Amino acid sequence: MPVTAMARPHETDVALGLGVPPFTPHAISVSLPTWRDNVGYEEGDERVVSAMVSGYPRFFVHLSIRKLAKICEQKFGVQGESCMLYPTQKIAEECRSFMQRRSALDGVAINARLIQFLITPGDNAPAELEGASADLHIVLFPSDAQPLAKQFWQHTGLGISSRLAEYCLSMLPDPQDRPSSPPLRKPLNKHYAAKGFTKGKQPPQESFIGDLGTYLEERYGRNLPFAHAESAKRALRRRIAGVLLREPTPPGDNRDEPIAGAEHLAMGPSARGVPEVSESDVFLYSTGMAAIYSTHVLASAVRPAARAFPYADTLKILEKWGPGCHFFGHGLDTDLDTLENMLQTESEANPSNPPVLSLFTEFPSNPLLRAADLPRIRALADKYDFLVVVDETIGNFVNVEVLSYADIVVSSLTKIFSGAANCMGGSLTLNPRGRHYAALKAHMKATFEDSYFGQDAVFLERNSRDSLRRIRLIDGNTEAVCDFLRSRSQAGGKADGVVKDVFYPKWQTRDHYEKCRIKESGGFGGLFSVTFTSLKASATFFDTLPFFKGPSLGTNFTLACPYTVLAHFAELDWAAKYEVETGLVRVSVGMEERDVLLKSVEKALLAAEAT
Fold first, then answer.
1. CA-to-CA separations, 413 to 111, 504, 586, in angstroms, rounded
2. What are the start-end ranges of the E strands in 259-386?
3. Phi and psi at residue 352, in whole multiples of 5°?
4. Distance of alpha carbon 473 from alpha carbon 475, whole angstroms
């Protein structure tokens, strides 16, 4: 069984800007311990920004990736050029196309160049590196176009991972060991030039934190052999498809090997509500957002139409790629009433043209934890012939069965499926019973490329082995905390309470949640949001919570953030229209002892009540 080490409350006081979890080289969150720190981060306060050495990977480019990018700029760039790094040529070409298309709309066309950089181990490489070259694809562009390049990186989630960057760096000579050379003065003539580089001396670790983080990962079996990458991916696909008859246990002390990925392991019918699902219907991606972006590309190719209708966080993708979208941000039945009327009107106006391409929804939503009426959506999709895409990250397949209502289910495996907050991953699962399954599957077979870095896959597979146990423990903890807060809230009957409402599927659109909740064993998930009667009370509650503070969710440890400040700081009035208040605090509950959690939350609540 994987080892899960939990932090005590006094150990969660991590300095501003350091990684969360601490001493973790590939941590996916960052410590923003006070409300003021979060506001400062959004305002670009130098006190906050200069302290950051970590962050959520799509928003904060990892220091190892920055170091590798700088090497690539010096080797291939001209003066005034910056670069972004991608794992395949196809993705690099998509980045260049996006930059050229979006810049042309602004009347200033950007000329981006592509370089292929093949990095191979040298003669003195460790045995595990032999033959394992890294194929890096570089997008070079004028430095003043950096914000546009960052949009592609952020919205698609397709950039290289920090582990891939460190692997590349391990095969390159340290820049400090060779004379520096000025950047090229003329760009290469070819739009796509191939270059090779061989391994030099292994670069030393750069800090005590880096040394300690590496030690901890190796000590607790987290630094896993590269050779297991393919079997790890098979195990992940099987686990997500729900076809494992049981979770096999590695023999003896060989906990590294992903036994669930053994080629001849017996499989059963899927436990995901659609028995026909197999591991071949599951496709892995480097991030959850990459899975969502790829789903949009897939839907656009198979079902070209006029519009798409998202419910939540895919909005930016749908706005910037394709024909546009309508956003139904409340996630309530009234939104579906409006959608149904629109579908009927457009269908009557042009009966030969399906009125929409697809509908994207989370189940439940983030941060208000509302569940859409999936049976009703499925009926509308069948009537008007559009695809249904469900993001089940927050509900997760231990608690809910949504595949039977969807054509495609996506998930961020970075969250509770992993839990350890030290690797990224995403998945796309096709429903074999869907009307358009044959076309979707054929397109995926023809176009899918596996860009998921092997070392990330082996970490994710190891982390996810005990996901069932962890999720059930976290479900129970979360319900206990929410019951306590609800009892002290205005929504729960305490008229003078400082807490206005607790957003949690147990009370938000519960009837819709119950339609998909797995009977007897399914819980309400590990995420909730809470609102207060004043912004001061919100900030006091947040600042007093003795937990890790930072972005992300679905971690084995409790993690809190002022969600609206981080996600919608530039559009607070817009968010408020959808009942997402500025003072909303979102909490992802972890595996700490329940009494400790309750006492910690009570302490923060008492502080808020005193404001």
1. 35, 21, 20
2. 282-285, 308-310, 358-362
3. -85, -10
4. 5
Residues 6+ apart with CB under 8 A from 533: 490, 497, 498, 499, 500
Number of H helices, E strands in the chain: 20, 17
On the question of pLDDT at 190 being above 80, the answer is no
Query: With contact defined as beta carbons under 8 Å apart, do 356 and 487 qualify?
Result: no
pTM of the model: 0.88
> Could you tell me the end-to-end alpha-carbon distance of the chain, in angstroms, rounded to an integer?
45
Q: How far apart are CA 284 and CA 280, in angstroms?
A: 11
Q: Which residue has the tokens 């077979």?
A: 445
The helix/strand/coil state of 452 is: coil
pLDDT value at residue 319:
58
Q: CA 84 to CA 112: how far, in whole Å?
A: 11
3-state secondary structure (DSSP) of residue 359: strand
Rounded Cα–Cα distance for residues 385 and 268 (Å): 32
Q: Answer whether 68's CB lies under 8 Å from 165's CB.
A: yes
Each residue of 72-107: b (16+ CB within 10 Å) or e?
bbebbbeeebbbbbbbbeebbbbbbebbeeebeeee
Alpha-carbon distance 464 to 474, whole Å? 14
Over residues 162-190, mean pLDDT: 63
Closest by alpha carbon to 83, among 26, 140, 32?
A: 140
